[in-house]
């Protein structure tokens, strides 16, 4: 059922250098996850599960093609229905308008005014979770504050240097919002901001208008972070489900490997909140009688003749006879040649590993093979470290 209470703004991650080369040509939001999903599917699914149909996307104009390729017309998420409203804005547009002295939040303000909703949810794409926005909105409504930030109690080992850590007073008001790198004590458990906010739409429109007059940060997430410590303005909502903060290659790799743990997989993917992705009408994966597959996930359309262990194999990939894949993530349309080996690696789309070639990473140094690469010689993480 369509929800006229809330609209949504999904802000794709701009700070993705630590995920290169996977993010050379795509934003973080369209990285593959668990063989068939993209990371942005989780934000879109949370939005759809809350009945929201008015959505604005804020993207990097240099990488937006993969977003459009994945979303298509938005049919799977109900964004093609009559009365739905989908709007795209770009990081660069806001920065350029600010530099030129123009009103750089006007596109977002126009979206908010046309949505005719009382509340707005703003979400990033870096925090992998299955968020119940209806529950969060219920808590937001019970406060007398115009802004609620969603956070999770998170171990220091899972926090990036530029992440924001929150503290609250006894009444639940946010009193500080500090970068993790600036904290004097970086051990223990912290209130990690998930870069998800629920705001009263009228307050947000007024704040954006005022902000662009006062030279506030042009990026929406930075703008909202600056509002949090203002006295009595913002409260918090604690998220307690599965969460993986994806900010570098190891955290991305671990998020995928987590799905081979049935408890974590069920906590993320099989709650009463369904995860929606773009549908593909493909044949089932073929397993040769000599194939050996253990503790792995494989999407549709694959041909498996060799051995796959503790790995995730995406659509239309081929593992040839006597080939071995262990502890690896293989993205779509890859081919692992006869007698080749892939261990502790991430292979991007359309990678071809020639027969007999060995790709050998380690648990502490996952090898990444960029998109469209033909690997014709052995690769190892020990050689990379030596170079």
UniProtKB/TrEMBL annotation:
Annotated GO MF terms:
glucose-1-phosphate adenylyltransferase activity
SUPFAM superfamilies, A to Z: Nucleotide-diphospho-sugar transferases (SSF53448), Trimeric LpxA-like enzymes (SSF51161)
InterPro entries to which the protein is assigned, alphabetical: ADP-Glc_PPase, GlgDAde_trans, GlmU/GlgC-like_hexapep, NTP_transferase_dom, Nucleotide-diphossugar_trans, Trimer_LpxA-like_sf
Please provide the record's keywords in A-Z order: Glycogen biosynthesis, Nucleotidyltransferase, Transferase
**What Pfam families does this protein's entry cite?**
Hexapep_GlmU (PF24894), NTP_transferase (PF00483)
Show where the Glucose-1-phosphate adenylyltransferase/Bifunctional protein GlmU-like C-terminal hexapeptide domain sits: 287-359
Domain called Nucleotidyl transferase: residue spans: 19-179
Q: Which PANTHER family match?
A: GLUCOSE-1-PHOSPHATE ADENYLYLTRANSFERASE-RELATED, GLYCOGEN BIOSYNTHESIS PROTEIN GLGD
The name under which this protein is listed is Glucose-1-phosphate adenylyltransferase subunit GlgD
Tell me what organism the protein belongs to: Limosilactobacillus mucosae
The record's gene field reads glgD
């Amino acid at each position: 059922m369509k929800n006229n209470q809330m609209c949504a703004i999904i802000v794709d991650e701009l700070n993705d250098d630590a995920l290169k080369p996977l993010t050379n040509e795509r934003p973080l939001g369209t990285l593959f996850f668990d063989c068939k999903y993209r990371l942005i599917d989780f934000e879109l699914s949370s939005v759809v599960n809350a009945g929201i149909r008015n959505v604005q996307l804020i993207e990097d104009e240099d990488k937006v093609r993969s977003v459009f390729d994945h979303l298509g017309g938005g049919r799977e998420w109900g964004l093609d229905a009559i009365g739905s409203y989908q709007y795209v804005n770009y990081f660069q547009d806001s920065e350029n308008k600010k530099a030129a002295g123009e009103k750089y939040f006007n596109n977002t303000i126009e979206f908010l005014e046309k949505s005719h909703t009382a509340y707005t949810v703003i979400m990033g794409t870096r925090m992998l979770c299955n968020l119940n926005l209806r529950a969060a909105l219920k808590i937001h409504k019970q406060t007398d504050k115009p802004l609620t930030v969603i956070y999770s109690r998170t171990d220091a080992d899972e926090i990036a240097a530029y992440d924001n850590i929150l503290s609250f007073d006894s009444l639940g008001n946010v009193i500080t919002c500090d970068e993790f790198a600036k904290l004097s004590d970086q051990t223990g458990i912290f209130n990690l901001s998930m870069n998800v906010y629920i705001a009263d739409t009228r307050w947000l429109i007024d704040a954006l208008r005022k902000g662009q007059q006062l030279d506030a940060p042009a990026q929406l997430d930075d703008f909202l972070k600056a509002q949090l410590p203002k006295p009595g303005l913002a409260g918090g909502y604690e998220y307690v489900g599965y969460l993986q903060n994806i900010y570098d290659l190891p955290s991305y790799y671990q998020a995928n490997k987590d799905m081979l743990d049935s408890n974590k997989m069920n906590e993320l993917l099989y709650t009463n909140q369904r995860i929606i992705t773009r549908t593909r009408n493909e044949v089932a994966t073929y397993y040769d009688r000599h194939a050996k597959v253990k503790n792995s996930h494989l999407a549709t359309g694959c041909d498996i003749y060799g051995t796959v262990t503790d790995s995730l194999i995406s659509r239309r990939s081929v593992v040839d006879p006597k080939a071995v894949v262990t502890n690896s993530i293989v993205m779509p349309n890859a081919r692992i040649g006869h007698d080749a080996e892939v261990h502790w690696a991430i292979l991007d789309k359309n990678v071809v590993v020639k027969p007999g070639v060995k790709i050998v990473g380690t648990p502490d140094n996952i090898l990444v093979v960029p998109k469209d690469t033909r690997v014709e010689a052995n690769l190892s993480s020990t050689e990379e470290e030596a170079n």
